[in-house]
Amino acid sequence: MRILIVEDEKDLNRLLEKRLTFEGYITDCCYDGAEVIEYLETAEYDAVILDLMLPGTDGMQVLRTVRSINNQVPVLILSAKSETKDIVSGLDAGADDYMVKPFDFSELLARLRLITRKKVETRENTYRCDGLEVDTNNKTVRRNGVVIPVSPREYAILLYLIRNQGTVLTRQQIVDNIYNLDQDINSNVIDVYIRLLRKKIDVGFDHKLIHTMRGIGYVLKWTE
Ligand code: CA
C-alpha cells in the first residue's frame, strides 16, 4: 500500500517515512504543496498524509485542487491547527480524516487503516476471498483459518491483489503499488513473487485464487 507524505518539516517527514516503511507501507515524501498534484499524477496512492501549513501551496488549497480534478485518493490531514473551525474546513473540503499534532503514531496507523478500507461498506480491516484472509490490523495471512507466513514484499503484493480482487492488474501496476519512486524495478520481478505466493496460498487447495492473464498480468479471484 502506497502513501504520499506531504510535510515540509524534514524531521517529521523522515520520521513518518521511517515508521510507515517499518509498518510495510511504501512511501514517497513531498515537502512542497505546489508539487502534490505532480506526485498524484505520477503514481497511484492509497492515501495521502497532508500537512496544512506548507510552502508553495497551502494544504487546504492542495486538498481543494485534488478534489476539483476529481481525484478521490483518501486524505488524512495532519496539522498543528487544532481549532474546531480548521477541522471543519478540512473535512468539508474533502479530507477523510483530521489529526492534530502532536499525535500518537498508533492512532495515525489506525486512522490510515480506516481511510484505506477499499469499500465504503467495509467496517473492518480484513480482506477476504474464499477462505483467504488478509488481516491488516496485525498483517497476517490465513487460508481456511491457518496462518501462512509471508515476507513483507509478498504481503504487500497479496494485499494489493485482494484489495482489487476480480480486477486484472498489470505487472507495472503491482510494481507501482509496492515500490516507491526512488526504486527502479524491472516488472518481471513480480512473476517471481507471484510464484512464491502461489506456493503458499494456492498449492494444496481445490480453488486457486491467483490467476495469470497471459500477456496482461494477474488477478485474484474465486472461480469454480
Ligand atoms: Ca508545516
Describe the overall structure.
- It contains eight helices and twelve strands.
- The chain folds into two domains: 2-121, 3-Layer(aba) Sandwich (Rossmann fold); 126-220, Winged helix-like DNA-binding domain superfamily/Winged helix DNA-binding domain (Arc Repressor Mutant, subunit A), CATH 1.10.10.
- The longest helix is centred in the N-terminal third of the chain and has 13 residues, at 10-22.
- 37% of the residues lie in helices and 21% in strands.
- The protein has 224 residues and is of the alpha/beta class.
- The structure holds calcium ion.
- Calcium ion binds at residues 8-9, 51, 53-54.
Describe, in short, the structure shown.
This protein is an alpha/beta fold and 224 residues long. The protein has two domains: 2-121, Rossmann fold (3-Layer(aba) Sandwich), CATH 3.40.50; 126-220, Orthogonal Bundle (Arc Repressor Mutant, subunit A).
